[in-house]
């Protein structure tokens, strides 16, 4: 199944441009929501660089925002940048649970692979598995409580149904949303984990965008170097490999622009999620 961001733009604008005066727009490095102004007659949900996942994430935030917040740039929220400490990262994840749960539902509605975004490449190392579990709990609540006050927001439900119809996806149930098997991951060896990551990178080459090719090439070097260090030190735990990759990316963050840091971090999250899903 192919996923083209042009389809998302068309489906979103067909669904909400007339009724909410809001359009989905491809942007540059930074996603943002901008209300209508003298120069732009429509509210704009702007996603990053043509990334399908970025579009779904920004749409998810928009489906939660109330009438008043949709009159303010970025809904009136102040975004704490990458580099958060433990307390600030916990606060960030607390407010991200619901939008990322909706993003997961929208992703499943079009058969697109989802991974949580902790978005803290140069800060404290987040517990991705714990955060993923919290997001899944919210997903299950949304999917299970269709007729209660805890149900999926109306616009999210509408767009989920639109996506499922377009992509031919069956109705979603709690069983649609599974977590990676951590027991199997713990049994994996560093070399096997590295090989699976590099194989996924190789699979991207034929269809990857220029940005994805850059990120995958940059990440390949860090993964291979971390795996070599593990081998030299006689370390065979996957957690040690992942920690070394995280540390290497953090130590060399100054090499990249903030946008490229997020691009590489998002791809690293995605590759880990896929390997652990298939374990």
Work out the helix count: 10
Structural class: mainly alpha
**What is the CA-CA span between the terminal residues?**
22 Å
Average of the residue pLDDT scores: 87
The shape is: globular
Q: What are the segments in which pLDDT stays under 50 over at least 5 consecutive residues? A: none
Topology pattern, helix = H, strand = E: HEEEHHHHHHHHH
Helix residue percentage: 55-70%
Widest beta sheet: strand line-up: 1-3-2
Number of DSSP strand runs:
3
The biggest sheet, with number of strands, parallel, antiparallel or mixed sense and barrel status, is:
3 strands, mixed
Strand content: under 5%
Rg, alpha carbons: 19 Å
Q: Assembly type of the shown chains? A: single chain
Which terms would index this structure?
279 residues; mainly alpha; three-stranded mixed β-sheet; globular
Architecture overview:
The protein has 279 residues and is mainly alpha-helical. It has ten helices and three strands, in the order H-E-E-E-H-H-H-H-H-H-H-H-H. Strands 1-3-2 form a three-stranded mixed beta sheet. Helix 3 (86-109) crosses helix 4, helix 3 (86-109) crosses helix 5 (154-167) and helix 7 packs antiparallel against helix 8. It is globular, with a radius of gyration of 19 Å. The mean pLDDT is 87.
Produce the secondary structure layout.
Elements: H1 5-20, E1 22-26, E2 32-34, E3 43-47, H2 52-64, H3 86-109, H4 128-144, H5 154-167, H6 182-187, H7 190-204, H8 210-232, H9 238-251, H10 258-277
Parallel strand pairs: 1-3
Antiparallel strand pairs: 2-3
Helix pairs in contact: 1-5, 2-3, 3-4, 3-5, 7-8, 8-9, 8-10
